[in-house]
Amino acid sequence: MKIRHRTTYRYSTPVALNAHRLLLRPRDGFAVHVRRCDVTISPRASVVWAEDALGNAVATANFSTPADTLVIESEIELDLLAPPWPVFNIANSAIRYPFAYDADDLRDLGALTGSHPSGSSSEVDAWARDFVAGTETDTLSLLRDINFGIAQGFVYEPREPEGTQTARETLALGRGSCRDFAVLFAEAVRSLGFAARLVSGYYRDSNAGPGPLRSTHAWVEVFLPGGGWIPFDPTNSAMGGFDLVPVAVGRDMGRIMPVTGSYIGPIGSYLGLTVEVFLSD
C-alpha cells in the first residue's frame, strides 16, 4: 500500500517560519509494517527525527528562508497486516465490566485513564453510563455499543483539520468530524474507568478503490488486559485495526495532529491550508 500526504500553507507575503512538528511516519507494529517513509519540504528545512514519550516518530523541521508557501509532503509504502475479523484474547479478569486494572498497569497507563478536565462533563458521563446494561456487562459489548452509538446517533461532518470540539460540544450538537467523534468516545469510556488514547492516521476504504481520500483520520484505542490496545473507530462503527494506519497516539488531539507550527509575519498574512491524501495499492 502507498500513501502520499501533502499539506500546503499559503501566505499573502513571505513569512518567517518557526520550527514545525511533524507526525507523518506510521507506527510499526503487529498490524502495520512500514517499508519506506520519505518526507520532502519546500522551502528547504533541516529535519531531525526523534521518538516522543509514547513512541511516536516526531520530525522537527527548522527553516532559514522566508516563504509565502509551505509544502510538506510524505510518501509512504507499507503493509497492512491486521485481520478483518480479529479475535481479542481478553484476560478473564476483564471480560466483564466493571473490572479493575492491576496496580502495575495502572501506573503505566497514568493520564490515559480518567476524563480530561476540559472535555469531561456530567452530560458526557451520564450519556456513557446509559450504555451499561447492568452490574456485570460484557466488556467488549459495552465498548462496541458506545462505538456504534456514536456512528448511528451523530451526523458525520467533514471539516478542515483545524480545531476539535469538546466531547460536551459534540454531544450537544449531535454532529462532528472523525476527531470530534474520537474525543467523545475517549472521554465517554474514560469516564467509565477505561484507559483510552486518541490515534491519528489514515483510513483505507476497501470499497473505494485508488484515489484521493477526504483527509487524515482519527480514532481511539482502549487498553484491555490480555487484549492490549484495541482500536475503535466510531466514525465507521468499526473495531480492530483492519484498514487503519496509525501514525501517532496521545491523550489529547492537539498533540497528535500531523503538522503543527507557527510563523512570524504581518497580521492577516495567513491565507489558509489544503490537505491532500492519495492512496494506492
Folded structure, characterized:
By secondary structure, the protein is α+β, with helices and mostly antiparallel strands. The protein folds into two domains: 2-81 and 257-280, Immunoglobulin-like (Sandwich), CATH 2.60.40.2250; 92-255, C8orf32 fold (Roll). Helices cover 18% and strands 41% of the residues. It has helices at 103-109, 122-129, 139-153, 167-173, 178-191, and strands at 2-17, 20-22, 32-42, 45-51, 57-63, 67-80, 96-97, 137-138, 155-156, 175-176, 195-203, 211-213, 217-224, 228-233, 238-239, 244-250, 259-260, 263-264, 270-280. It is globular, with a radius of gyration of 19 Å. The chain starts with a strand and ends with a strand. GO terms for molecular function: peptidase activity. This is Transglutaminase-like putative cysteine protease.
Taking the sheet with the most strands, its summary is: 6 strands, antiparallel
CATH-defined fold name of the largest domain: C8orf32 fold
Task: Sketch the topology as an H/E string, one letter per element.
Answer: EEEEEEEHHEHEHEHEEEEEEEEE
How many structural domains does the protein architecture include? 2
- Span between N and C termini? 4 Å
Envelope shape: globular
Q: Which segments are poorly predicted (pLDDT under 50) over 5 or more consecutive residues?
A: none
Q: Quick one: how many beta strands?
A: 19
Name of the CATH first level of the largest domain: Alpha Beta
- Level-2 CATH architecture of the largest domain: Roll
